[in-house]
Amino acid sequence: MSKTVRKAVIPVAGLGTRLLPATKVVPKELLPIVDTPAIQVVIEEVLASGLQEVILVTGRGKGAIEDHFDHSYELEDILTRRAKTDQLNSVRRISKLVRAVSIRQKQPLGLGHAVLCAKEAVGDEPFVVILPDDIIAAKVPCTRQLIDVYHKYNAGVVSLLPVPEEHVSRYGIVHGEHWAPRLHRIRTLVEKPKREEAPSNLAIIGRYVLPPKVFTYLEETPRGADGEIQLTDALQRLARERALIGYEYIGERHDIGDKLGFLKCNIRHALQREDIGPELRQYLRELVSAEQESQS
Questions:
Q1: Is residue 284 part of a domain?
Q2: Which member of 88, 136, 158, 189 lies 3.0 to 4.6 Å from 142 by CB, making a disulfide possible if both were Cys?
Q3: What is the pLDDT of residues 16-31, one digit of tens each?
C-alpha cells in the first residue's frame, strides 16, 4: 500500500536568465500571469491537487517569494482604512493559501541537488516536484493527474508531452513501452539529445511524483562535467532498478521561462477572465485586422 502524497517540492533558486533584464532584481517566479505571480498560479495547482505542504527550495535574492505568501500588515491596514474590501480580501487570501517551508540551496548545483536539499523536509514519503517555469492549465490539475497514476501503480511518475522533432534537443526525452492509454513504461532517459539521436519525441515536462528512494539515488549520483547533480540521472536509475511511468497529461502547457511562452501564457489566461477577456479578444481581432491591412 503506497503512502499518500502530501508534499510538493518547488525549486525556485534559478536566475531566470532567459527573461533578463526583467529578472535582474525581480525573481522570475513573481512575474505576473495577468495580475497573479506565476508562483501563486503553481501553488494554487498544488492546493487544487489536494496537497498539504509546499517546500520552496530558494536561493540568494529570492526572499520576496516568501514575503508574497506572508502577512503584509502595513498593506492590510491601508486597505482597511480605505475600505478597499475586495483588494483586502485578495491580499489576505494569499497569506492563507499554503503552509510553506523554505530551504536554501546555497550553491547552484543543478536540479537534482535542489531536490536533494528538500530531503529532510520531505522525509520518508512520496512527494511531488514541480518546476514553476511550466504553467499547465487543465480541468483536472496536472499534478492531480500524476498523483492518481502514482497511487494506482505505486511507482514514480513523470509528465510527458509529445514535442516536434526539431525541439527534442530542448528537453529530457524518454524511451520505453507504450502499455496503456497515455501511459509508458520508461526504460531510458536522455537529456537534451541531438535530433538524430533522440529515442522518441516524448519530452519530460516539469511535474514529477517520486518515491523517497530518489533521495538515495541523488546522494549517490556523481556530479557531471559541469559540477551539477542531475535529476535525470536519478530517474534513470529509478527506471532501471524499480519502475518509472511516463504519463501524457491532459492540459495546455506554457513555458513561462521563455519570452514567447510567457506572453502566450498571459494572453491565454487573460482571455479566460470575465473582467478583461472580452475586451482583449476584441483588441486582438482589431490588431490582426490592422496587421493584415498593412500587408495588403
A1: no
A2: 136
A3: 788 888 888 888 988 9
